[in-house]
């Protein structure tokens, strides 16, 4: 299954299914909770047509303060009401002392941070009564590392029992910016825990710097890394992210078709399930 991030800019096109035909959709629940009127009707229409996964932005599980239980209660109700199949979040933090930073900041690769993150993930999983799929974020400078990123991720996954959301573009961006081998890094991850995959575009802003933008087509080297990656894992859903610089629907459909073709070729002997 190859899906597409659901955005209001092309809600009508996705509902009509004439120009774009994803297998499922994904959106951030906090962007749709407690809405009413026109957009609630639109949400119901799109969910009649597509299965849905949710990708959260606001749990900030790496923050020092306690998890926002009121927000988490709303999330649980939303996931249950709309029969959301997978709920994912980020190995990061985005607020401190209730100051919301509106960005995903990297965790320090240290054992105390890994234990903190794992405990918060366990707390949320126990409350939601479902595993979280945690995304490995793109970052532009490490913060006081005392262990490798791969060791940090393995500690969090092993201790929390969470799954992974594998964003192939993020790993390509990190490997380019921090000058390591993306495939060697990928091989160190607990790939049996991958619940699904994100694919997106980036922008190279200097000879030695790439920005993870979600506003450009997927680059050929990222397709190549994706093809290599899915040979290492069981079939899982794959999502195309495009958050701005929205192209013509035909262009997005071409990216979906290319991703589907790669998945079919590499997973043709498996049954893909969400």
Walk me through what this model shows:
- This protein has 274 residues and is an alpha/beta fold.
- The chain has one domain: Divalent-metal-dependent TIM barrel enzymes (TIM Barrel, Alpha-Beta Barrel).
- The chain has nine helices and twelve strands.
- Strands 1-2-3-4-7-8-9-12 form an eight-stranded parallel β-barrel.
- It is globular and about 50 Å long.
What's the domain count?
1
- CATH fold-level assignment: TIM Barrel
Give the C-level CATH assignment. Alpha Beta
Note the overall shape: globular
Beta strand %: 15-25%
Structural classification: alpha/beta
Poorly predicted runs of 5 or more residues: none
Task: Tell me the number of strands.
Answer: 12
The level of helicity is 25-40%
**Largest sheet strand order:** 1-2-3-4-7-8-9-12
Organism: Chitinophaga fulva
Pfam family, one: MbnB_TglH_ChrH
Protein name: DUF692 domain-containing protein
Give a quick rundown of the structure.
Helix content is 40%, strand content 20%. The protein is built from 9 helices and 12 strands.
Main features:
20% strand, 274 residues, eight-stranded parallel beta barrel, alpha/beta, two-stranded antiparallel sheet
Topology (SSEs and partners):
Elements: E1 2-5, H1 11-16, E2 25-27, H2 37-49, E3 52-55, H3 69-81, E4 87-90, E5 92-96, E6 99-106, H4 111-128, E7 133-135, H5 149-160, E8 163-167, H6 168-178, H7 182-187, E9 194-199, E10 202-206, E11 209-212, H8 220-230, E12 238-240, H9 249-267
